[in-house]
Specification:
CATH class of chain C: Mainly Alpha
Helix content of chain A: 25-40%
Largest interface: B-C, 60 and 62 residues
Structural class of chain A: alpha/beta
CATH class of the largest domain in chain A: Alpha Beta
Oligomer: heterotrimer
Structural class of chain C: mainly alpha
Radius of gyration of chain C: 22 Å
Chains: A alpha/beta (448), B mainly alpha (601), C mainly alpha (362)
Number of strands of chain A: 18
Number of domains of chain C: 1
Strand content of chain A: 15-25%
Distance between the termini of chain A: 72 Å
Number of helices of chain C: 13
CATH topology of the largest domain in chain A: Rossmann fold
Number of strands of chain C: 4
Radius of gyration of chain A: 24 Å
Distance between the termini of chain C: 18 Å
CATH topology of chain C: ABC transporter involved in vitamin B12 uptake, BtuC
Largest sheet of chain A: 7 strands, mixed
Number of domains of chain A: 2
Strand order of the largest sheet of chain A: 9-8-10-11-12-17-18
Strand content of chain C: under 5%
CATH architecture of chain C: Orthogonal Bundle
Order of helices and strands of chain C: HHHHHHEEEHHHHEHHH
Shape of chain C: globular
CATH architecture of the largest domain in chain A: 3-Layer(aba) Sandwich
Shape of chain A: elongated
């Protein structure tokens, strides 16, 4: 190819760009929100409300987010964005099942069936959350997304989904960075339109700290996280209260989620004189710490403690997890919950495999109830005003399996209660561990 | 005994040809067993099960079993292929024996699957092989009892193999029309979403309703037959010519070729301009990703294709570009927030990438090819670990990355949707293509190619090898950094998980499969390897498995890629070509399928 | 065309000329040395870790290094004979480890596991060795033999393709979740070695590796097959002229290398009892580093290189990085390993014990 021809190509290309920019309506700046019509329109534009500061989100007037119209006979679409693959698959799968049961039980809303239009994988990391969320909102008919499983995925997902006007409600995100610090300060990654029925880790961290200091009487603690917002949020939430109580954090370090060799951080913990190691991480990294700890000189008697990320059937059956303590959400004991578990077992052939199935069930039902309340008919079409939906979720009180749910201004809806449990025998199953509750802490106990 | 007279240019040699050797049934049997292993693996890794949910033609043709028996077809094709003509033998003609060979290969393959089905129905192997579920058994046996199922499987495989071999018996023109027609039907069936979107964009929804069961549904039988007939007829009418398109283009005189290329380029550009508008956000997103990979592939093309240095850590430069762009533009960058516009930040991105290129290149100046590959791999991993680390989190955001990268702004225009981003990405691809072409015929390009062939000789001829290596890395790094910066702006955030070694390997596969050193080839590679898995959800699970197999198969059969640069093809088939050249002296036309050229005399 | 022109074995540039490149490389040497020394000094003088803990890190490094050494044997032998890096060797190791896992699981369900751990382990080892060796031979036959005479890049790319294929085949067949090796009671706990308590599993790994290495060394140096292997790696054509079946020898090389990787896979289960389809990737790269570190083509070099790398990787972060107060330096362990690779290849590409390859074929 001669140079002249290449020049011409480049010129043509630049021309194409300019023409596109001038001619295309979709590429001009648009300040309005989502405009959707039944059946989906190729010219959907997305509002660019991607800044994180609080003010721009809260000053949006009602109705600015647009509406979703559902024609007679069409289903109401919701989506699921959970961790359904890899070693954390129990966490997401458990919640997907909770959502499916909620849909089956609800049946229909205002004459429209409910469809789980997407079952996306959040990969328990930010990239998965971003990709899954983008894929979901490309369908303009999706009203709400139940997810994510992991707070790390929740950070980008909440941004993407709420910017598109929809609802993101999570059954297992617990990191304070997604809502607030429970002391009235909004967190950096909070977006309007994000809600969750799981507890805020400010509570779980405080509960764990109180347990270690008061019940176990240990004062030298090492914490290990893996850089993810959930794990980091939880170790921070532990360290503050623990030091206030009078304990010492002898080591606060991080590993990577795919790290297999824990000898270095464990050796450091031993050198620092740790009596307990608090490692609220996920599998598979969480497998290696109790496996390798006994071989480290100085850690023969160390106490190991994990959190709800490790409260899964695949972890507690590992021989090395024997004797470990876990913090996690309190399992309900109401008859309604028992019925739910029975239905779960009938449907899926096994008891619940992680701890957040009921939270996901409640999240889905909250959305359904809110839609039912604010949906309006326009002729034969069901009209859902997205801002009204947000307002309803923010103000409603809902009696769910996990307690009375009422959302504060930053999206925390749970009435939190934390259990401290212990795995007292090797190869115990998850039900036994969840049932072996040592202490329960509520918000009042912790003074939050 | 053949009579040989002394050769001379005036009188071609007359040799009595011996009859062609018959199709080797032993080889067919061996191929059948290998095919059987392949079929068993395809079933056991869950490919059949996952694909089975996809209906190609409603209601009869699910993809899973079709894929399985397509393997039998392929191995039958290989078994029934007439062997290449050898010197002194008549060219082989396909006959019924080829069919037998194909059927044999297919049958043996089916037998292996039958054995698998028998094992599955006797033992529960899910403790080891997680995919061997009762559902899979149901699929494989068509719901029949075991004995009947095995007979059915073997029979169908044998038929598939025979059909595969039968392709060789068809006259050329029929073959050229039949196979593309089948491929087009398959593509229509697989890409129903895409086609539906296209028709909707062109306001031709009636076509969707006619051909498919619904938007995003499978092809109807009527629709399948329609597509088949249309494509068959089209290829039949066009298939009368003897020469391929490429040969005809090359045969044109210079001026005409230039005009043809210009017109072709203009047409392509106009089509590409309309594509994002017509095809909607999801397809545009996929095309954006393909465009970014294409940008990287063009950069890696310079490092691997021109300079011959296998860089397996190429993703590091991509990451440097993405993170530099993010740091300079995002208000959420942890360390410092200049919050520049991306346009303004691009020069800094280029500088950062150039520095990274130098940092990687300088230690590897004296290294040999294989060591270079491993060391660059190490650098790629070091980059990923550092970007992910807690230590550098105050600058790079650690495992949480950097979010809130603002949209690309060009003057008053703000690009926010995937459709919008298509144009700047495409512009950068054009720039990269221009750079590639310009360098190919420049002094630098020739220095690189000399260095690629033989470093010591190049040095002896006066090429400054050090500068050549450094410059190749720098140019490759800068192109990758463009891709990274655009990637960050388009997605809106950068996370360290995106910069895995699989990205480097994917880019490598693109240029290998497409054709190293050739821009249309690389574009085709990006299209096939990025667009296809993203559009076909079922394939994306097994994406990397296909990449691996594709790499092996390509290296064994067509290492120059699908649309190779002519020089490259010649280099890689040099042995065959020189053999042909030697034969040509005796006036015989060789029947290999290597690119032929006039042998030097 | 008169007498042949003799081409010098070294590149034309003489070593005594000082170029910007040599200055840069010397600067790099000094900087690296300074960084290491300063960091080490800070770490040790702060007294953060006790002597016993440093010793433990050392032993741990030696045991992981032994596993690397075994894998490195495969790389080094194949490179010596065919002059190319078999990228898929890490996957050969992983497959051996997978087989070890399933056999161990199966045995653990029987009484043999507890009654006779030695026999059980032996069965596990044999199973792993056979599987890995078979896979290696299969690879050679399908993917590498047809490309014997191709330009260097082609078989390298093929091996990358083979690596990916094997990884994702295994992932599809047995699932992507992590597998946990069953425990073996006699191997838990510690042994008293020269007054200090060392975990039994690590001692076993080191001892087994040494035994296997000695066996291999004797095999290569003393037997006829070993001699033909050395001959083929010295000069393939001449070896063929001498009547050695080159193809069979190459197959033997792959098989032996694969068997070594199989042993490594079984040992992996003792040190790191968790395994998934991606577990072969990093050890593969580190093993290649070890092979180069010790001197490629050199079997004793592989052992030395492996153990050295294991120790450097285990002790390095705590020794060098901690001295600079880098937070969460355990995340950077692999950076230390890769940096070691780069340093070795820049400053002593022939390795510690020197290469044992023939001169470049023209």
């Amino acid at each position: 190819m001669t140079k002249r021809r290449i020049h011409m190509l480049a010129v043509l290309g630049a021309l194409a760009l300019i023409l596109a920019a001038c001619g295309g309506g979709t590429s001009a700046t648009t300040a309005d929100g989502v405009t959707t019509t039944v059946g989906g329109d190729v010219t959907t534009t997305l509002a660019d409300t991607s800044t994180t500061m609080a003010d721009t989100s809260t000053t949006m007037a009602a109705g600015e987010l647009g509406v979703i119209e559902i024609a007679a006979g069409d289903p109401i679409k919701i989506a699921s964005l959970q961790a359904i693959s890899g070693d954390v698959a129990s966490l997401g799968l458990d919640q997907v099942r909770g959502i499916e049961i909620a849909i089956a039980n609800k049946g229909e809303i205002a004459g429209h069936s409910i469809e789980l239009a997407f079952n996306e994988d959040d990969l328990c990391n930010s990239e998965g959350g971003q990709t899954g969320a983008t894929r979901i909102i490309a369908d303009p008919q999706v009203v709400a997304v139940i997810g994510t499983s992991c707070s790390g995925a929740g950070v980008p997902a909440s941004n993407v989904i709420t910017s598109a006007g929809r609802i993101l409600i999570s059954g297992s995100n617990t990191s304070p960075v997604l809502t607030s610090d429970l002391a009235g300060n909004e967190s950096a990654e909070h977006h309007d339109g994000y809600y969750r029925t799981a507890h805020n880790d400010a509570i779980q961290g405080a509960a764990a700290a109180k347990f270690v200091f008061e019940e176990l009487g240990l004062t030298q603690v090492a914490t290990i996280n893996d850089g993810d917002p959930y794990t980091q949020g939880l170790t921070s939430a532990f360290e503050g209260p623990f030091e206030e109580l009078g304990g010492t954090i002898v080591l606060s370090t991080a590993v990577t989620a795919d790290q297999t060799d824990m000898t270095t951080p464990l050796t450091e913990a031993s050198a620092a004189g740790a009596e307990l190691i608090f490692f609220p991480i996920f599998q598979p990294a969480g497998d290696f710490i109790p496996e390798q700890a006994p071989s480290i000189a100085g850690l023969e008697d160390v106490v190991l403690m994990g959190a709800d990320g490790l409260l899964s059937d695949t972890y507690v059956t590992l021989p090395q997890s024997e004797g470990m303590y876990f913090s996690g959400p309190t399992t309900p004991t109401t008859p309604a919950y028992e019925d739910f578990v029975t239905q779960y077992e009938e449907e899926y052939g096994e008891p619940p495999i992680q701890s957040f199935h009921a939270h996901a069930f409640d999240a889905a039902n909250m959305v359904f109830t809110a839609i039912e309340t604010i949906a309006q008919m326009s002729g034969d079409t069901l009209v859902i005003d997205l801002q009204a939906l947000r307002d309803e979720l923010g103000s409603m009180t809902y009696e769910g399996l996990t307690g009375t749910l009422s959302c504060d201004e930053f999206g925390d809806c749970a009435a939190p209660s934390i259990n401290i449990m212990q795995n007292t025998e090797a190869e115990a199953d998850i039900e036994a561990v969840r049932g072996n509750v040592l202490v329960t802490y509520t918000r009042e106990d912790l003074g939050l | 005994m053949a009579q040989v007279t002394a050769p001379s240019p005036a009188r071609p040699v007359e040799v009595e040809l011996r009859p062609a050797p018959p199709v080797d049934l032993g080889r067919a049997a061996r191929l059948g067993l290998i095919g059987g292993v392949a079929m068993v693996l395809v079933a056991a890794t869950g490919i059949v099960g996952t694909f089975q949910t996809r209906l190609l033609i409603d209601p009869i043709l699910p993809l899973g079993l079709l894929f399985l028996y397509l393997l039998a077809f392929a191995f039958g094709w290989m078994a029934g292929k007439p062997p290449a003509a050898l010197e002194g033998f008549a060219p082989a003609r396909a006959n019924s024996r080829n069919l037998v060979a194909g059927a044999l290969a297919g049958a043996l393959g089916g037998l292996c699957v039958g054995v698998l089905a028998a094992l599955m129905s006797t033992f529960d192997l899910r403790g080891v092989f997680v995919q061997l579920s009762p559902q899979l058994l149901e699929i494989l046996t068509f719901g029949l009892p075991l004995g009947a199922a095995i007979i059915a499987i073997v029979a169908i495989s044998a038929v598939a193999g025979a059909i595969g071999a039968g392709v060789h018996l068809l006259p050329v023109r029929l073959k050229r029309s039949l196979l593309p027609a089948l491929v087009w039907v398959m593509m229509f069936a697989l890409f129903t979403d895409l086609v539906g979107q296209l028709f909707a964009g062109l306001s031709a929804e009636f076509l969707t309703d006619f051909l498919f069961t619904g938007r995003g549904g499978a092809l109807t039988i009527v629709g399948a037959i329609t597509v088949f007939i249309v494509v068959f007829v089209a290829y039949w009418l066009l298939g009368g010519r003897e020469t391929t398109l490429r040969e005809r283009i090359e045969a044109m005189p210079r001026g005409q070729r230039t005009r043809f290329s210009l017109i072709a380029a203009a047409v392509i550009l106009i089509i590409l301009w309309f594509v994002p508008k017509v095809m909607g956000p999801f397809v545009s997103q996929v095309l954006d990703t393909a465009g970014i990979y294409l940008l990287m592939a063009l950069g890696l093309n310079i490092v691997v294709g021109y300079a011959g240095m296998l860089d397996l850590g190429y993703v590091a430069f991509f990451a440097v570009g993405a993170y530099t762009g993010a740091i300079l533009t995002s208000p959420q960058s942890p360390a410092f927030t200049p919050q520049l516009l991306l346009i303004v930040a691009i020069p800094f991105v280029m500088i950062a990438a150039a520095l990274a290129g130098l940092m990687v290149a300088t230690p590897v100046i004296r290294m040999r090819g294989d060591y270079l590959a491993i060391v660059t791999l190490g650098f790629g991993e070091i980059a990923r670990i550092l970007f992910n680390s807690e230590w550098l989190a105050p600058i790079f955001g650690g495992a949480q990355g950097i979010t809130n990268i603002p949209d690309l702004q060009i003057g008053p225009l703000q690009l926010s949707t995937p459709q919008d981003y298509f144009y700047p990405i495409f512009l950068f691809v054009l720039i990269a293509a221009y750079v590639t072409f310009a360098l190919q015929n420049s002094r630098w390009g020739r220095a690189w190619m000399a260095m690629r062939e033989d470093e010591s000789v190049a040095e002896a001829m006066g090429v400054n090898v050090v500068t050549a290596k450094l410059s190749a890395f720098v140019v490759g790094a800068v192109l990758a950094s463009f891709g990274g910066a655009l990637f960050g702006a388009q997605i809106g955030s950068v996370f360290p998980h995106s910069f895995d070694i699989v990205v480097s390997v994917t880019v490598l596969v693109i240029i290998i499969v497409g054709g190293m050193g050739s821009v249309p080839g690389v574009a085709l590679g990006a299209l096939v390897l990025i667009v296809l898995p993203n559009l076909l959800r079922e394939f994306s699970q097994y994406q990397f498995l296909f990449y691996g197999v594709l790499l092996i198969v390509m290296m064994l059969t067509k290492p120059e890629g699908f649309i190779p640069s002519k020089r490259r093809a010649q280099e890689l088939h040099a042995d065959e070509l020189s053999q042909d050249a030697w034969l040509d002296i005796y006036g015989d036309k060789p029947t290999t399928d290597a690119t032929t050229t006039e042998p030097p005399r | 065309m008169s007498e042949a022109i003799s081409v010098p074995a070294r590149p034309i540039r003489s070593a005594s000329r000082v170029t910007p490149v040599t200055i840069f490389l010397w600067g790099l040497r000094i900087a690296a040395l300074a960084v290491i020394l300063y960091g080490s000094y800070q770490s040790i003088s702060s007294g953060r870790l006790s002597g016993a803990q440093w010793r433990d890190l050392l032993i741990f490094g030696a045991s992981t290094g032994s596993v690397f050494a075994l894998i490195a044997l495969g790389y080094t032998m194949v490179y010596g004979v065919l002059r190319f890096i078999n990228f898929a060797h890490g996957e050969v190791f992983m497959v051996g480890a997978m087989m070890a896992f399933y056999v161990a699981n199966g045995l653990a369900a029987t009484s043999l596991w507890i009654a006779s751990p030695f026999v059980s382990l032996l069965i596990v080892f044999v199973a792993a060795m056979t599987t890995s060796a078979s896979l290696a031979v299969l690879l050679e036959r399908i993917a590498y033999r047809p490309l014997r005479n191709a330009p260097r890049l082609i078989p390298l790319i093929t091996s990358i393709g083979a690596s990916f294929t094997i990884q994702y085949l295994v992932s599809g067949l047995v699932g992507p979740s992590t597998k946990d090796f069953p425990r073996m009671e006699p191997l838990r706990g510690t042994i008293n070695v020269a007054g200090s308590l060392i975990p039994t599993s690590r001692v076993v790994v080191i001892v087994v590796t040494v035994i296997v290495m000695i066996a291999l060394y004797l095999f290569v140096e003393r037997t006829r097959t070993g001699k033909s292997m050395r001959a083929v790696s010295e000069d393939q054509e001449t070896a063929a002229l001498m009547g050695i079946d080159v193809n069979r020898t190459i197959v033997t090389v792959f098989a032996v290398g694969g068997a070594m990787a199989g042993v490594a896979g079984a040992l992996w289960g003792l040190v790191f009892p968790s395994l998934n389809y991606f577990s072969g990737f990093l050890p593969g790269i580190k093993a290649f580093t070890a092979a180069v570190l010790g001197g490629i083509g050199n079997i004793l070099g592989a052992m030395l290189g492996g153990v050295s790398l294991g120790v450097v990787e285990s002790v390095g972060p705590s020794l060098v990085l901690a001295g600079y107060d880098i937070p969460a330096f355990s995340q950077l362990k692999d950076v230390v390993a890769y940096a070691a690779l780069v340093m070795v290849l820049i400053f002593r590409p022939t390795g510690i014990l020197g290469e044992r390859l023939s001169r470049d074929r023209t």
